[in-house]
Design goal:
Largest sheet: 2 strands, antiparallel
Shape: globular
Order of helices and strands: HEEHHHHHHHHHHHHHHHEEHHHEEH
CATH architecture of the largest domain: Orthogonal Bundle
Number of strands: 6
Mean pLDDT: 90
Distance between the termini: 20 Å
Structural class: mainly alpha
Helix content: 55-70%
CATH topology of the largest domain: Hypothetical protein af1432
Number of domains: 2
Amino acid sequence: MPAPIRKSLLQFIFSGAYMKRWNDKLRPTELIEIDKQAHKMIVAWLLCRLDGEGKTPAQRLGLEKQVVEEGIFDYLFRLVITDIKPQIFDRIRENPGHYRRLATWATEEIRPVLLPVGGDFFARFCSYVLNPRPEGRVADILAAAHTFASAFELRLLKTLSGGPFDEELKDIEEQFLKRLDGLASLPGVADLAFALGAAGEDTTALARFAALCGQLRFQKRWSQTPRIPETSVMGHMFVTACYAFFLSLSLDACPARVVNNFFCGLFHDLPELLTRDIISPVKKSSSELSGLIREYEENELERRVLRPLRKDGCEDIATRLSYYLGLEVGSEFTECAIRNGKVEKVDFTELEGSCNMDELDPKDGEALKICDTLAAYIEAYTAMRNGIASAHIQEAFWRMREQNGRRMLGKHHIGAVFADFD
């Protein structure tokens, strides 16, 4: 049985950890592409949930599926065209001939990486990339999320002494606010736009949650071990979400399962915003300590995230977050489905069989844990390839390889994926 996902795709997705944003500006901290993409997709999810109110489950799923897929398409395209300044890229898009040449070149560059995922998937990617200006509800949601995440970064830049004297920053800020104003018909966008210039206590719970998530970009992983490149908790969440998306496709998961796995990956480390990154050896040092940490995480999630959202009328968002974080079944890495309105534990065999249908809203557990481990594995592998071979990095790398070398997920030999990295 071939490996479900390939080394080339995993490394390509991770390469966004090298892409520095706003690299012509004085920055308080490095701003990295995968961090921005994580923030963008979190905001896109919030806007999807709000826009989906009143829609049928099938309509809501269709909206979320398209947002996830096109969000990933956009990220992959940006990885190929790398650091073209946004103003220059906008000028290119205004000339259909110039844009098509750029987009055609980009699709050929990425063909060897994406074609193994499936011909239909690659065809959809090409169709998306070759369209210079996508239109419709999905395009508006992604545009609003992109603008908010970028404007959040701009606020960080303005905190430096040089910020107020940079005329370009003022122009960019005006453009961001103008774009959000043009998308204000989308539920939630007006709240997000207001939050960019207001004090935290004056904003809605939705806007405060979006801003709170953005703080995960400041929290570095492997904090006591030098690495190149460094990755944040936020960037790791996005990489894990992308791996979960592609692994789900290889498992022939139903659309609901694919979407749920992506967003579970995107939120799986959200509690670390409240507890910081507690390394696995500490978490697993005793069952009592592990249980205590979990209890503290859930209490803080309830106090700082879920309760404010419910109090402010965002019950649906709070309920969905609880599902992604596995609060009803004990862990985000527990397989589950929803029967008769109740969240139930299932096993992987059931997910692959009777539960692999949109109506049951299934979500993987073991597969998501594999993706989380793969993201950490590539962080360690890349650091060693870049000359950072500390004892801690090497120990973690070989431990993950040994623990997963013979691992199977259904009929898929996951160990083959880990063995590709030598």
